[in-house]
Write a structure and sequence with these properties.
With about 90 residues, the chain is an alpha/beta fold. It has a single domain, classed as 2-Layer Sandwich (Signal recognition particle alu RNA binding heterodimer, srp9/1). Helix content is about 20%, strand content about 35%. The protein is globular, with a radius of gyration of 13 Å. The model has no long low-confidence stretch (mean pLDDT about 90).
Amino acid sequence: MAQIREDAFAEFFHAGGIRNVVLVIEQGRARIAFSTAEGPRTGVIVTKRGEVKSYRVETALAFLRRLGLAQVLIDMQHWELRQQQLEV
């Protein structure tokens, strides 16, 4: 799985290297996963320390929108109703 920082993701996206983006929601937080245009290889955005970056849902959506992304898939498989709410 590819692990890249936000700045590299933005460059890769603008160069046409991203096929689709999935916002994965788990325990009220979100992470950004993606597939490349070269094939089914997927990756995630990470912090400077190399840890998977955890976002507030609204922050992740704002970041993707600023890049010009109009559509994103949302994976709520690990979010449960008993969590009451998403942190926005």
